[in-house]
């Protein structure tokens, strides 16, 4: 993995993060909002762990092939904070992919809004700092 490829992954991540922010700013009276936020959460989550994986590989850490391993290594390297929140994201991502229940969707929406978005944003800032 080279630095340019990591920059490309960061750019993709930033686009997804912006789209997630857009969805989170929508009016909650729209019943499609929960689906939109969850879909954008899934995209942002996928790009987050792949961005971290690419950066870790650039730094010579190549045995990180799953989100759990990537987040643990990224936490150890100081790239992310609050490792428990990132592990919770894994669990919620798995829930959104394998089941659909309106009540669960609303709960995940709230976690995305109240916990996950700020962690995604912190990751963007940290990666801009370490890449550039």
UniProtKB/TrEMBL annotation:
Gene3D superfamilies according to UniProt: Nucleotidyltransferases domain 2
Entry coiled-coil feature ranges: none
Family matches, as SUPFAM superfamilies: Nucleotidyltransferase substrate binding subunit/domain (SSF81593)
Region forming the signal peptide: none
Gene Ontology MF annotations: transferase activity
TM region(s), chain numbering: none
Protein name per UniProt: Nucleotidyltransferase substrate binding protein, HI0074 family
Source taxonomy: Bacteria, Bacillati, Bacillota, Bacillota incertae sedis, Caldicellulosiruptorales
């Amino acid at each position: 993995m080279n630095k340019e490829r990591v920059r490309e992954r960061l750019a993709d991540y930033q686009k997804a993060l912006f789209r997630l922010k857009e969805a989170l700013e929508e009016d909650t009276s729209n019943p499609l909002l929960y689906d939109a936020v969850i879909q954008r959460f899934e995209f942002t989550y996928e790009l987050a762990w792949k961005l971290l994986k690419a950066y870790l590989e650039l730094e010579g850490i190549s045995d990180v092939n799953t989100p759990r391993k990537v987040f643990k290594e990224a936490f150890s390297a100081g790239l992310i904070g609050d490792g428990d929140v990132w592990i919770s994201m894994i669990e919620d991502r798995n829930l959104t992919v394998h089941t659909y229940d309106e009540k669960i969707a609303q709960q995940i929406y709230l976690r995305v809004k109240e916990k996950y978005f700020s962690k995604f944003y912190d990751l963007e800032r940290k990666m801009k700092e370490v890449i550039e």
